[in-house]
Amino acid sequence: MLFDERPKDSKKDLFDRENELSEILKSIKESRPLILILGIRRIGKTSLLNVALKESKVNYILVDLRSLDRNYSRGELYNALAKGLSLNKRVLEFLKGLRGVKIIGNEVELRWKGRDSLSIPELLDRLNDNRTIIALDEAQKLRGPLSNEIKEAIAHAYDYDRNLTFLLTGSEVGLLYNFLGIEDPSSPLYGRYSVEVKLERFTKEKSIEFLEKGFDEIGISVSEEVLEEAYEKFDGIVGWLTFFGNEYYRERDFKRVLKIAVSLASDEIKNLEKISKRYITVLKCIAQGNDNWSKVKSCVEKIEGSSISSSILSNVINNLKEMGIIENYQFLDPIYKLAISGFE
Ligand SMILES: Nc1ncnc2c1ncn2[C@@H]1O[C@H](COP(=O)(O)OP(=O)(O)OP(=O)(O)O)[C@@H](O)[C@H]1O
Ligand SMILES: [Mg+2]
After folding, report:
1. What are the residue boundaries of the MCM C-terminal domain, all occurrences included (predicted)?
2. pLDDT digits (tens, 9 = 90+) for 199-252
3. Helix (H) or strand (E) holding 326
4. C or N: which end of the chain has fewer Cβ atoms within 10 Å?
5. Per-residue DSSP letters for 211-280?
6. Which structural domains are found in the chain, ordered by start?
7. How do strand 330-331 and strand 34-38 relate by DSSP bridges?
8. Which of 238, 241, 323 is the pocket-test mutation for ligand 1 (most atoms within 8 Å of CB)?
């Protein structure tokens, strides 16, 4: 079902993306060490990742890192790894007898403390005994206290573990680049080559075809006008189109669906407010059409009623860019732009 809101995991439910999928499968076949799937939120990274893993017919572990916060602990990381390892029974077989690994039925426990604990390089070296893909969803979340240790392990595997392919996704593309540090001489991964697959929005034609096919599957017909409006408002972002399909089926009211989408986006923006209120202020100014540095600066100063240092402002703007929220003083997601105007 095209409008199923969970990330897709079978090729028949994956609309379009043939080129991206075949590029990933080819890179896996060639045993490329590092492949990146990049794109803004809701653009379909996890779906493509799932389908590529399945279609590759290679053993894999799939680690969902989304829930790691900025100061994640070793325990939280190992729990995420354990969950990812438990998905694949064959991989569990390969881990038997490894120090710090306990297999109970279909689940694995990893020990991260004490003398008989498991280290990440040991885990990777064992996985390397068989051809395995290490899939890390939202890999930029690995930034933080263990960042260097993880990068060293990946760099070691990159150089020596010929049977491993790392397949990473990132919605905060700039942060993922920063984490990997491929262009940063002080990073263990400096100078390593990665295959990059960038996911783009669907064109108008593709978006309308996607919606028509989806509505057809659930047996309702929707006017061309509504489909076009959905494309305009959701800007060809497949996750929003899927959301729209579902909600429109329930509500049959465009305005209402848009309102629900905006409130979802508002909840996500609230996370930025936790870092600093300034992020909201800067986004508000950008939403109002202030499209260069000095316009944003004077807008922020006007709202805050005080001057703001250039370095602080450039830090905020740069972070918003690296998080994949803005580019060239424009919003990357039109629903975020609508949502920001609802903030005080
Ligand atoms: N090619 C596709 N065909 C059909 N549905 C898709 C496709 N790509 C994504 N979707 C749908 O769009 C939504 C978002 O997809 P997905 O979770 O894969 O995106 P994502 O980029 O990983 O999002 P996030 O950044 O939030 O993790 C889901 O409902 C998914 O089912
Ligand atoms: Mg995802």
Report:
1. 274-327
2. 999 999 999 999 999 999 999 999 999 999 999 999 999 999 999 999 999 999
3. strand 326-327
4. C
5. HHHHHHHTT----HHHHHHHHHHHTT-HHHHHHHHHHHHHH--HHHHHHHHHHHHHHHHHHHHHH-HHHH
6. 17-198 (3.40.50.300), 271-344 (1.10.10.10)
7. unpaired
8. 238
What spacing in Å lies between the alpha carbon of 60 and ligand 1's midpoint?
Answer: 20
* Sequence-distant (≥ 6) Cβ neighbours of residue 229 within 8 angstroms: 254
In the block, tokens 């402002």 appear at: 313
Tokens of 179: 């984490």
Distance 87 CA to ligand 2 centre (A): 17
d(CA 188, CA 81): 21
> 295: exposed, middle or buried (C-beta count within 10 Å: 0-12, 13-18, 19+)?
middle
User: Whose CA is closest to 284, among 271, 302, 267?
Assistant: 302
Residue 344 has pLDDT above 80, yes or no: no
The full DSSP string for 127-182 is HTTS-EEEEEETGGGG-STTHHHHHHHHHHHHHH-TTEEEEEEESSHHHHHHHH-T
Query: With contact defined as beta carbons under 8 Å apart, do 46 and 39 qualify?
Result: no
**Which residue's C-alpha comes closest to atom 9 of ligand 1?**
44
Contact 180, 187 (CB under 8 A): yes
DSSP-assigned letter for residue 294: H
* Contact yes or no for 137/146 (Cβ under 8 A): no
- Residue 25 sits at φ, ψ, to 5 deg, of -65, -40
Atom of ligand 1 nearest to the CA of 4: 31
Burial class (CB in 10 A: 0-12, 13-18, 19+), 14: buried
pLDDT tens-place string over residues 276-318: 999 999 999 999 999 999 999 999 999 999 999 999 999 999 9
Tokens 């409006």 identify what position? Answer: 229
